[in-house]
Amino acid sequence: MSNNSGGSGHDVHSFYGKKASKLIRSLKEKIERREEEFSTRPVPDMCPRYGILGPCPAWDVFPTQLAALDQAEQDPTLFVFAFESSTFGGAGKRQFVVADPRVFYDNFRNRPLAQRTAYEVIPVHRRSKLYFDLEFEKDLNESKDGVAMTKVLISIVQHLIESTYNVPCPHEKIVNLDSSTSKKFSKHLIFDLESIAFKNNLNVGNFVRSLCEKITKSCTDNSTTDLTQSIDHDFHSLFVNTKDGHKALFIDQGVYSRNRNFRLYQATKYGKNTPLLLAHDATGFTFNSNDEDIFLASLVTFVSPSCRTVTFGDQELTDRPKPALSSLNNVKCAARLASKSPFEELDDFISNQINGGTIRRWTYFDKTQTIVYTIEGYRYCHNIGREHKSNGIFYVVNIATMTWYQKCFDPECRGYKSAEWELPAHSVPWSRGADEADWSNNSSDESKSTPQNETQWSKEWWDDEYDVMMQSADIDLLGRSGY
Ligand SMILES: [Zn+2]
C-alpha cells in the first residue's frame, strides 16, 4: 500500500504502461464523480481562471449572509450572491458566495437550470438602481393585460425620473425580465440608468412607495394630478385582484428591505423550472444582446462609478423596526389567523418554501421562542417523501437556535419530526449572528415597536380546536424549557 505518487493520486509509471486503460477508467470515474458533485453541491467551489488584467478571481463561500457581507464590504468590486441548496434536508437553505459579478456569471451560466437557484444580495450600504417586482394571479385577473400594464408603469417611471432628477430615462436602459407562468404574471424591471443611482435600496423603496401613492391618489380622487396631466392613461388598469379579496397595485412594495435577496437573470426559484428571462416585450436589452451584458445590467447594485448619487425620502422613518420580542414575554402563547406575523422576513422565507401554498396561521410560543406555521395548499411531507392527499403539514421555527423543521397532521405521521434545518440569516435579520449590526440604530426604544395591535396577541385568538390539533400532532414545543 505504498503508492508513492507524490500526492497526485496517479502512479506516473502506469501512464505509459499497460495500466493506461485502467488510468483512463479511473479518470472517467473521477469526472463522473465530479459531475455528480457539481449537481448535488449547493455552491460550486471551483472558479474559472482569469488573466492578470481580468476581474478579481476571488470566490469565497460563506454559510451566513452577515459573514459574506462583511467580506464584500472590504472590496467594492465584490458582490454577494445567495445560492439555494437543492440537497435533501437542506432544501431551501442558502449559502453565500462573494465574487466579482463576471466571475460569478461565468460559473452560474454553465450550471443546469435546476441548480440556478440564485439571488443578488442587495447590501443596504451599496448604491442601488431603481427596480420593480411586478406580479398578479392570472386566474383572479382574467381580463388583465400585464404587458400593457407594464408599458403604462414604464411611462410613469420615465416621467417621474425625468421630472424629479432632470435626467433621461430611455427605453434602451430598461432591463425587462419575465418569469410568468400560466398561473402567475411575474416580471422584474431594472432601470440601468447612466447618470444617477439611488443612495441605497431603502431610498428606492421610498421612491416606489411615493409613485404608488401618486397612482392611487389619481384613481381615488379622480383629481388632476401632475401624473394625470402628463400621462394620458387610465391608471385604474394597474390595480389587480389579490388572493385575500382586495384590489392592489401589481407592484410589490415589499422588495426594498435591508439586504434583500433579489432573483438573478436566468435563475429559477427553488424547485420550479421557471427562469427569469428577457421578456418578449423587452425594448432595451433584447434577444440580440450579449448575455453577460444583460446579467450585469440587471444587477441592482452594479452601478457605474460615474453615476451621481440621489436620495428620496427619509430612510430612517420608513425603515421597519426590529420585532419586539420582549413585549411578547407576558403572553404565554398567541395565535393569529392568516396574516403576517411581526417576523416579516421569516414569513417570506416560509412562503418561499411552500410552492404556491399559503401560511394559514402562525403561532408564537414565548417560552421556547418558537413559531409554528400551519400551511394550506401545500402538503409535502418529508416523512413520506410526497404530498399528503388531505392532511396538512406545519413547520416549527426556533428563533433561539435559528433552525426549523417539519411536522405533520396526518395520523400516520404521528410523532414524526423532520431533520432540523438551519434558518438562512436573511430570514432572521434581527437575530443574533444574523445582521444584528443593521438594527443597532433603531432598536434603542423597543416599546415603540410593539405589534400594531396588542389585542391580536391576546389569548382570544387561541381556539380549542387548534389546541387539540397541536396535541394530536404530538408537537414537542414546550419540552425545551422543561414543561
Ligand atoms: Zn406526513
Automatic annotation (TrEMBL):
In terms of Pfam families, this protein maps to: Herpes_UL52
Any keyword Nucleotidyltransferase? Answer: yes
Q: What EC number(s) is this enzyme filed under?
A: 2.7.7.102, 2.7.7.7
**Mind naming one GO cellular-component term on file for this protein?**
mitochondrial matrix
Compositional bias, Polar residues, is annotated for 439-458
Q: Which GO terms describe its molecular function?
A: chromatin binding; DNA-directed DNA polymerase activity
Q: Where is this region: Disordered?
A: 434-458
Provide a GO biological process annotation. response to UV
Catalytic reaction annotation = ssDNA + n NTP = ssDNA/pppN(pN)n-1 hybrid + (n-1) diphosphate; DNA(n) + a 2'-deoxyribonucleoside 5'-triphosphate = DNA(n+1) + diphosphate
Keywords recorded for this protein, A-Z: DNA-directed DNA polymerase, Nucleotidyltransferase, Transferase
Q: Which PANTHER family does the UniProt record give?
A: DNA-DIRECTED PRIMASE / POLYMERASE PROTEIN, DNA-DIRECTED PRIMASE_POLYMERASE PROTEIN
Family in the record: Belongs to the eukaryotic-type primase small subunit family.
This one is known as DNA-directed primase/polymerase protein
Organism (species): Hyalella azteca (Amphipod)
User: What gene is this protein a product of?
Assistant: LOC108677232
